[in-house]
Specification:
Largest sheet: 7 strands, mixed
Structural class: mainly beta
Shape: globular
Radius of gyration: 22 Å
Distance between the termini: 80 Å
């Protein structure tokens, strides 16, 4: 009887050890992400409803996708209404979305969207965005490329002489593809600019 009990104890210990190994091998889930929306840090606890307004902004960590669902974003005390420090970020547009950086409570120079990693804007919706001052372009990627694809429509108005869309870096490109549409209105000499290439393919314009 004691021998059988010892065998059961050994089997139980082995199962527990395997469970521990599996748990330690799994990638830990981050409790916050390097994205800010209207000054709010995106965290695991608020990812499904970042601003607490019923879900106009949500984030899926598995696909690195920030979804704007009929969002109207203005308020921020940061350099941009949306800031991403992720290596890559997908922005999915649902319905009509507005980013009014010109109406923020921040300083005199605020961008609508500021990214330091690869940025993709896609979906079936619309993004209308403007800036507040000449320091930042309305949509600015400081180190990597920007892709606009799907059926996304992006309308940009650059105020105070700022650029509309700018990606910076010797390997940085702007790619417009599929059925995407981009319109830029600016008083400066530059509406869309990439340090390397701007390419337009398929039905994009």
């Amino acid at each position: 009887m004691k021998k059988r009990a010892s065998i059961f104890a050994l089997v139980f210990a082995l199962c527990a050890a395997l469970l521990c190994v599996g748990a330690s091998a799994a990638a830990p889930r981050a409790d916050y992400y390097s994205i800010w929306v209207c000054g709010t840090l995106v965290k695991d606890s608020n990812a499904s409803d970042v601003l607490g307004d019923g879900g106009s902004v949500s984030y899926d960590a598995e696909s690195n996708t920030l979804t704007l669902n009929k969002a109207e974003l203005t308020d921020t005390s940061y350099d941009a209404v949306i800031i991403s420090e992720l290596d890559s970020l997908n922005i999915n547009l649902v319905g009509e979305n507005i980013i009014r950086a010109s109406e923020t409570t921040g300083g005199s120079d605020v961008a609508a969207l500021l990214s330091s990693g690869e940025l993709t804007i896609s979906g079936n919706g619309t993004l209308t965005a403007d800036s507040k001052g000449p320091r930042y372009p309305v949509i600015y990627n400081s180190t990597s490329s920007l892709k606009i694809s799907g059926n996304a429509t992006v309308n940009v108005t650059a105020n105070a002489g700022s650029m509309g869309i700018y990606v910076q870096g010797s390997t940085s490109d702007i790619e417009l593809s599929e059925n995407s549409k981009v319109t830029v209105t600016t008083s400066s000499n530059t509406g869309i600019y990439a340090d390397r290439n701007v390419t337009i393919s398929e039905n994009a314009n």
